[in-house]
Amino acid sequence: TYITSATDSSPSTGFSTSHLSAEQSPGREKHGMKRIVGSPGTWSGMALRLSQCFFAAASSLAMCSAFGFSNYSAYFYMNLVLIVQLLWSLYLACQDIFSMRNNRDLHAPDILLFFVIIDWAMAILMFSGFCASASVTIFFMKDMNFCAEYSRLDCSQFTLSVTLAFITWLLQAASSFSGFWLLISFF
Q1: How far is residue 1's CA from residue 19's CA, in Å, rounded to a whole number?
Q2: Among candidates 154, 175, 179, which has minimal Cα distance to 65?
Q3: Which helix (H) or strand (E) holds 182?
Q4: Where does the pLDDT of residue 151 fall: very low under 50, low under 70, confident under 90, or very high at 90 and above?
Q5: 16 forms bridges with which residues in the sheet?
Q6: How would you class 26 by CB atoms within 10 Å of its CB: exposed for 0-12, middle for 13-18, buried for 19 or more?
Q7: Cα gap 130→142, rounded to integer Å
Q8: Among 61, 139, 152, 165, which residue is least crowded by beta carbons within 10 Å?
Q9: 121-134 burial, b if ≥16 CB within 10 A, otherwise e?
Q10: Is the pLDDT of residue 43 over 90?
Q11: Mean pLDDT across the stretch 13-41?
C-alpha cells in the first residue's frame, strides 16, 4: 500500500490516511510516542526530572543551612522557587513512572501544552531566582567584602546554593526545550 502522510488523501482511492495507527505512521514508537530525549513518559524524561529534584533539593538545603538567608529577598525568592521546582519535578517524575509502568501515552497535545507552559514558567522563575541570588552573592563577596568582615555570613553556602540552582535551571531548560520541540512537532 502507498502511504503519503497523515493529512494527504490518495487521488486514486480518495481516502484519507489520518486513521492509521501509530505502528503505521513514520517517526512514531509502538505506543504513538515520538522519540525525543527528555520528553514526558520516557526513561530520559524521568532521569531528567529526578536530576532536577536532586539538584533543587541540594540547593535548597545548602541555602537553608546558611545563617540569615531569609534576611535577603533574593535568597528567599530563590529558595521558594527551588521548593516549587522540586515539587513540580517530583510530580512529573511520578507521571513518567506511572506512564511507563502502565504504557500510557503522555504525548497528547493537550497534556503536552500543560507541561510546556508550566515548564517554561518554572524555567523563567528559576532563571530570575538564581540570577538575583548570584548578583547578591557577588555583591557580598567581591564588591562590599561582607564575607570577610562578617564571619557569621556564610558566603560559601550561598555560592554553593547558587551553583546548584544554576544546574537545576540548566536541567529545567533542557526539559522545557524537549517538551516544546515535541509540542511543535504536532503542528
Answers
A1: 14
A2: 154
A3: helix 155-184
A4: confident
A5: 9
A6: exposed
A7: 17
A8: 152
A9: ebbebbbebbbbbb
A10: yes
A11: 56
Helix, strand, coil percent values for the chain (each to nearest 5): 65, 0, 30
Rounded to whole angstroms, the Cα distance separating 73 from 65 reads 16
Angle at 35 between CA 32 and CA 37, to 5 degrees: 140
Residue 19 banded pLDDT, cuts 50, 70, 90: very low
Residue 141: is it exposed, middle or buried by C-beta count within 10 angstroms (0-12/13-18/19+)?
middle
| Phi, psi torsion values for 78, nearest 5 degrees | -65, -40
Give the relative orientation of helices 155-184 and 73-101 as an angle to the nearest 10 degrees. Answer: 40
For 22, phi and psi rounded to 5 degrees? -65, -30
What's the mean pLDDT in 14-43?
A: 59
Look up residue 50 and give its amino acid: L
Which of 26, 6, 24 lies closest to 16, judged by CA?
6
Cell 535568597 belongs to residue? 75
Bridge partners for 34 per DSSP? 28
Residue length, the chain? 187
Q: Which residues pair with 28 in a beta bridge?
A: 34
Mean pLDDT of all residues belonging to the chain: 85
